[in-house]
Amino acid sequence: MSKVITRRAALRSLGLLALGATVGCTPLRVVLNSHPRALNDDSTLEDRVLRAFLATVIPGSDVDAPDAIRVFHDRAYPFARYAKFFAGDLCRRASHRSGCTFDQLSPADRSAVVQEGLAADGTTRKLYGGAIYPIQIATYAGIYDDRGGCSLIGFDGGYHFRPRTENTYPDPDSFLATALTASGNHA
């Protein structure tokens, strides 16, 4: 008993299959640069989402600094090609969670969205790891401003002159061993 499939039913099935592959397959979405239309409509949304991501990954960081998310758009790093897609993925996951964009979520919900991305398929995990690693380097190591340092980890930045009193102990003789003989020789 074989059932005859009409041309219309076959085209509908193939269309649904193609739609499912486009929506569900991360590598295909990356290649097609599929992101929510809101990112094209609102020019500030991508920056707000990426700054919220920075605040989520590195709590206490200065998200309003001019160079805070510069690493995401710097063409010297490969992640720049995927920044808009990444912001779109964050918004898509946030929308599934609560119906709003990533930057409008509470810190706990933003953390849950990032953890969900890190637990997703292999391509998405690489994308999220590829976003976390450079933002940590940019924040903690100060790759754009090495003189400024990072107060979060007590890093002062590049070389700063320190007076001798800050580079030595106040009473260095108290840390030295006492002489065994009057002349200071052991014999």
What overall form do the CA principal axes indicate? elongated
Please state the average pLDDT score: 79
Structural class by SSE content? mainly alpha
Number of helices: 9
**Uncertain regions: pLDDT < 50 for 5+ in a row?**
21-25
Give the strand content. under 5%
Largest sheet: none
Helix content: 40-55%
Please identify the oligomeric state.
single chain
Count the beta strands.
0
Instruction: Supply Rg.
Output: 27 Å
Q: Please, how many domains? A: 2
**Topology pattern, helix = H, strand = E:** HHHHHHHHH
First and last CA, distance: 108 Å
Walk me through this protein's architecture.
- With 187 residues, the chain is mainly alpha-helical.
- It has 2 domains: 1-34; 35-175, no CATH class.
- The chain has 9 helices and no strands.
- The chain has helices spanning 7-24, 26-32, 37-41, 45-57, 70-73, 83-98, 107-118, 122-140, 164-167.
- The model is unreliable at 21-25 (pLDDT under 50).
Care to give the gist of this entry?
By secondary structure, the chain is an all-alpha fold. Helices cover 52% and strands 0% of the residues. It is elongated and about 110 Å long.
Descriptive tags:
187 residues; mainly alpha; 9 helices; elongated
